Amino acid sequence: MTREELYSNIIRKKSFLCVGLDTDIKKIPQHLLGGENPVFSFNKAIIDATADTCIAYKPNLAFYEADGWKGMQTLERTVGYIRSNYPDMFIIADAKRGDIGNTSKMYARTFFEQMDFDAVTVAPYMGSDSVTPFIGYPDRWVVLLALTSNKGSADFQDTLSDNGEKLYQKVLRISRDEWGGNPDNMMYVVGATRADMLAGIRQIIPDNFLLVPGIGAQGGSLAEVCKYGMNGHCGLIVNSSRAILYADSSESFAEAARAEAIKVRDEMAGYLI
Amino acid sequence: MTREELYSNIIRKKSFLCVGLDTDIKKIPQHLLGGENPVFSFNKAIIDATADTCIAYKPNLAFYEADGWKGMQTLERTVGYIRSNYPDMFIIADAKRGDIGNTSKMYARTFFEQMDFDAVTVAPYMGSDSVTPFIGYPDRWVVLLALTSNKGSADFQDTLSDNGEKLYQKVLRISRDEWGGNPDNMMYVVGATRADMLAGIRQIIPDNFLLVPGIGAQGGSLAEVCKYGMNGHCGLIVNSSRAILYADSSESFAEAARAEAIKVRDEMAGYLI
Q1: Residue whose C-alpha is closest to residue A71's, from B168, B207, B241, B115
Q2: Which chain A positions have a beta carbon within 8 Å of B65's beta carbon?
Q3: How far is CA A80 from CA A43, A93, B126, B169, in A?
C-alpha cells in the first residue's frame, strides 16, 4: 500500500486506528474454546466487528508462535482472511525482527513474500544491514523501533551520546540519512506513553508515519499524541490491542470490542478535522 | 542445562563448537529436494555427522519462518530429533526477540515451554522488561546481543555515551547489575569479527559464557577469540553455520560438513589444553 492510499483510507474512514491482534488463548471467551480453531474464530469475529472503524490490523507474532506451527497456521489464515474480505486494510507484522544481513533478508522474504504483510516492525540494535533488507519491496514498509512505550525503553533509548543526541534520535537520523529510509517506505514506533517527546521527533522526521502503541491498557493519551505527533497527512497510526480485544469476555465480546473501537474512532475523527 | 554441565560437555568433547542450523532450501544439495521434507533431511544428516564434534546447535528462526507454518513444523521436528538422539546437546534458538513485557513473556513461553530450547537470543533495545521475562526459567538461558559480528554493528553499539561508556558496554553493565543476569542464566553475543574488544568485555563480565558468531563465512579468527575471550571455564561457544553446512553440495555433503567441523574442533582442542 502506498502512503497516498493509506492517507486516503484514513480520511474516508475518519480513523487512524490499528487494532492489535495480540490474541491470547488464555484470554479469549470460554465459549470459543470448544471450536476447531478458537484463536482464528476470535480473530475473525473481532475483524468483522471492527473493520469499518480501523485502517490497520497488527498481529503480534509472539502470540501466534506461542502455539508453535499451528499458531503460525492461524496467523497465515488470519492474514488471508483480512486480505480477502477487507482489501483496503494495512496489515502490520509486529515481529521486532533484525539480524545480520543474510538473515534479515530471510525475514523480509517471510513477511513480504511468504506471507502478505504490508509492514513489519524491526529493531535497530544491529544497525544498517539488519534493517535495509526490509527496504525496497515496492509499497511495503519497515516500521523501525525508535522510542517504545514500555518501562524499559529508558534503559538504552534515552542514552545521551557525547554529541548531545539520544540513542532514539540517532536511530531516526541514521535511518533517514544513511539507509534510504523515507516517508514512503519507513515508519517509526513511538510509544504514546512518551508523547511529550513527539514534538522533538517531528523535527527530525516531519513526514513519516508513526506507529503509536500504548493507548488503552498501557495508559497513553490520544489527545497528547495528536497534539504533538500529527502532521499534514495525519502521520499517525495509533494501535490499541488489549482494550479492544478483551473489552468483554462474554458471548457478546465482538460487540463490546466494536463499541470500544468506535469510541476510539470517534475521538480520532475529532482530531482529523 | 546448567553451566557446570555445559562446561563438562566441552571438556569431554574437547570442543566448544556450535553448529548454526541456518538451513536455506535454496542452498541444500539438489538430490534432497525430491524428498518429503528436504530441510529436515538435511538437518538430520548434518546433526548425525557433527554431533560428536560440537556441544550445541543453533537453529536460526528466520530460515524456518521463511517457509511459514511448515517451516516451524520442521524446526520443532529438528529440535525434537536433537533432544531424542543427543540429549547432552545445548540448543539455542537464534531468534533475536525482545518486546514489551507481556509480549516477551509469550516469546519465553514459546521457546522454553512450547518448544524445548535451552537458550534464546534476545535484543536489548527495548530494555529491562523486554529481557527479564526470559530470565528465571531454571537451567534456561538468555543470550543477549551485546556486540554483534555484522557490518552495521558499529552504527549504534559503538555509540559513546556522555559518561564515556559505549552502548554495548552499557548493555553488559545494566543487564549484570540491574536485571539479575548472572553467569548461570545469561550469555552474551559477541562477534568474532570484533575480537579485539573481547579483553575489555571480559573486564565487565569475566565469568559469563559468550556466544561468538562470525568465524567461517564472516571471517573472524578463532585464535583471536580464544586469546582475548576465554576464561577459566572456557566461557566460549563459537558458532559456525555456512562454512559447515554448505562445505559441499554433492551427495557427500554430510561427510564434508563433518570434515569441516572436525577441523574446527581440532583447533579448539588445542586452545582448551
Answers
A1: B115
A2: 72, 106-107, 110, 114
A3: 12, 13, 30, 44
Contact between A126 and B214 under an 8 Å Cβ cutoff? The reply is: no
Q: How far is it, in rounded angstroms, from Cα A190 to Cα A7?
A: 19
B107-157 residue pLDDT tens: 999 999 999 999 999 999 999 999 999 998 999 999 999 999 899 999 999
By the CB < 8 Å criterion, does B225 face chain A? no
Q: What are the grid coordinates assigned to B224, written together?
A: 583471536
Choose the closest CB to A126 out of B127, B150, B170: B150
The C-alpha cell at B149 is 559480528
ipTM of the predicted structure? 0.95
Closest CA to A159 of B130, B172, B163: B163
Please report the pLDDT score of residue B215 as a whole number.
87
Angle subtended at Cα A116 by Cα A231 and Cα A214, rounded to the nearest 5 degrees: 40
Beta bridge partners of B60: B94
Q: What is the DSSP string of B92-135?
A: EEEEEE--SHHHHHHHHHIIIIIS--SEEEE--TT-HHHHGGGT
| Cβ neighbours of B122 (radius 10 Å) | 30
- DSSP at A181: -
Please, how many CA atoms are within 13 Å of residue B121, restricted to the half-sphere of its CB?
28
Question: Contacts of residue B60 in chain A, CB cutoff 8 Å?
Answer: 99, 103, 106
Q: Tell whether pTM > 0.95.
A: yes
Neighbouring-strand partners of residue B240: B19
| Alpha-carbon Rg for chain A in angstroms | 18
Q: Which of B133, B97, B139 is nearest to B116 (CA)?
A: B139
- All three cell numbers of A82, joined, read 483480512
State whether residue B180 sits within 8 Å of chain A by CB. no
User: B-chain residues within 8 Å CB-CB of A112?
Assistant: none
Sign of the alpha-carbon dihedral angle for B213, B217, B221, B226: positive
DSSP state of A76: H
Distance of CA A93 to the CA centre of its chain: 7
